Amino acid sequence: MTDLLAALPDVVTNGLKVGGGMIVAVGYAMVINMMATPALWPWFFLGFALAALSEITLIGMGIIGVVMALLFLQVDPEFNKTSGGSSSSDGGDPIDDILNDY
Amino acid sequence: MANEIKLTKTDRFWVFWNSQFLQASWNYERMQNVGWAFALAPALKKLYKTKEDRAAALKRHLEFFNTHPYLVAPILGVEMSLEESRANGAPVTDQTIQGVKVGMMGPLAGVGDPVFWATARPILGAFTASFALSGSWLGPILFFVVWQIIRMGFLWFTQEMGYKQGEAITNDVSGGLLQKITVGASVLGMFIMGVLVPRWMTMNFPAVVSNVKVDKDAQVNFQPVINAANHGHLTVGKIRAVIASVNAGNSVTPTKTTTLGDIFDELTPGLMPLLLTLVCVWLLRKKVSPIVIILGLFVVGILAYWAGILGA
């Protein structure tokens, strides 16, 4: 077995090393496919841009991610349906009310 | 509610025990995924009774996973409570389970290294090494025993902590909290996946694109230092002049080499890993088997290395 491995040319062994470094992309892609919805893609690219262009550590990224998830929950209309008034057209937003009265 | 399945302390103990083998079967594609599924297996076996349910649960936990081998414990705890409520009929979706996992694994991986490898272990090592230096056989033994106590204690207690926290979330009867966790975890999970692409994947492009001769004025002039050194009257001032010249951005070499990687980095660092990930996402959606993609990537790796485009 060792002889067999030694007999492989360098191009093959190093090429396999290069390929080995890339196949993690398949693992990432499967996780992404499991989670992704059109509404969630912007978060992926925001995370990418922050990680690629800054030196923020993973812990810092975790804090940013949690903060943004919490902020998103506050503004997500899904969870704010009955927060203001009793009917859907009469929300808590004053500008919305003005537009409705117009 | 009478026939609700609960994970007992014994079940949780076996998950803790198995979690010590997290890094066994580590692989390039999904890293610690097999170890993770193995750790969770005793709990899944207890929660799901039919063969189909068990298979589905294991499959769900064989997705990509990677974190610090100690900080895995709180994630296991939370995931156990999520699976428990799912088995009891709560609307815990695959997205919730996956989102919580990914959202926690990235940041916790960042916590583990500085805390354990860079702080706790050196301190304990220095302490016990002083025993060994004074000739006591207690040094190495103490190091081993105390480290195991720290390690196993941390694994068990943070796993319990995660489990209790998870239960508090899933026991919220109105279900509003769980729904919020689902959305929040998906946001966090996708965000962290975006972060991990450039941080945990590197591709080298050593191919030389251009070799430009640097103008004499833009080069660091080493001549005064060389002359002075050869004649034995080198002064601090001459060395300072060279360092100042380097700091001013002058080139150290007579030619400026630009590689393909430099160009990609100028566009955006991590651009190629991002594109590769997106291509994989697209191929998977086109129902291309992951095995085919992996074999294809090996072929691409060998060809690109042979052509000098990609480097190890």
From TrEMBL, chain B:
GO terms for biological process: phosphoenolpyruvate-dependent sugar phosphotransferase system. Keywords: Membrane, Transmembrane, Transmembrane helix. The chain crosses the membrane at residues 177-197, 267-284, 291-309. This is PTS family mannose fructose sorbose porter component IID. It holds the Pfam family EIID-AGA. GO terms for cellular component: plasma membrane. The keyword Membrane applies. InterPro entries: GatZ_KbaZ_carbometab, PTS_IID_man.
